[in-house]
Amino acid sequence: MVRDTGDSQDAKSPADMTAFVQNLLQQMQSRFQTMSDSIVTKNILFGVISIFNVFLDTNALDDMGTRINELEQSINDLRAEMGVESSPSPAAEKPKEEELKKEEGSD
Questions:
Q1: Helix or strand run (H / E) with residue 27
Q2: I want to staple 84 with a disulfide (CB 3.0 to 4.6 A). Which of 8, 50, 79, 88 is the partner?
Q3: What are the boundaries of the region Disordered (predicted)?
């Protein structure tokens, strides 16, 4: 004889247990997918931010080079206004020195 102790309400049928386990697995899969998507999104954002930072650094260097060129031009303009010749770069002086040596050797 089976006694009804009220535990029959707590007992689950195999179908109920299967449904419970399937629900639990779906929740776990959903949470795993959410975490996975979050990781992928963070990696993509990190990559985009890294590329953006490199782009900014490149633009900053280009901007600095442009400003230096403008400054050199302004200095040369001021020298021209004052009647002072701008000093040639060392690369421009080398051919003159070589020409002088050739002239001295040809005498």
A1: helix 14-82
A2: 79
A3: 79-107
